[in-house]
Write a structure and sequence with these properties.
Blueprint lengths: L1 H12 L1 H15 L9 H16 L31 H13 L3 H27 L3
Length: about 130
């Protein structure tokens, strides 16, 4: 029984983290599918959609051209070259799994935000040993 008590005690010690994550999850996930995508979210979604079709984030799909800075971020093939591609591929994966929706565009980043809050809490706890 002492091992079970010790485990329960450790779990009980993390109630502040659970409370913070519950509040953060509420703020991050409620109404995540509402409202249109904002400017940078829209860019990310359109470039992610192009990844599903062409394999790379391209601003030209043969019909539509998306650009907000007169081509400064694109190479001669209209491929995004000024930003790292990770966010586009994360969004493309979400689109592939969940469909091309506002929720699918925002969901991975909400989960990453929640993970960042948990990580920050654990780092501060490790440094200060104060929950």
């Amino acid at each position: 029984m002492p091992a079970a008590n010790n485990t329960f005690s450790r779990v009980r010690d993390y109630w502040p983290l659970a409370a913070v994550l519950a509040i953060a999850a509420t703020l991050l996930f409620v109404r995540l599918d509402r409202d249109y995508l904002w400017a940078d979210e829209g860019d990310t979604a359109v470039l992610a959609k192009s990844i599903l079709r062409f394999g790379v984030p391209t601003a030209w799909d043969g019909v539509s051209f998306i650009d907000s800075d007169f081509g400064a971020r694109l190479n001669d093939d209209f491929v995004m070259v000024s930003h790292p591609w990770l966010q586009y591929y994360v969004t493309a994966a979400s689109f592939a799994l969940l469909g091309q929706t506002t929720l699918a565009a925002r969901l991975p980043f909400a989960f990453l935000g929640l993970a960042t809050i948990a990580l920050a809490y654990l780092i501060v706890h490790r440094i200060t040993t104060n929950r």
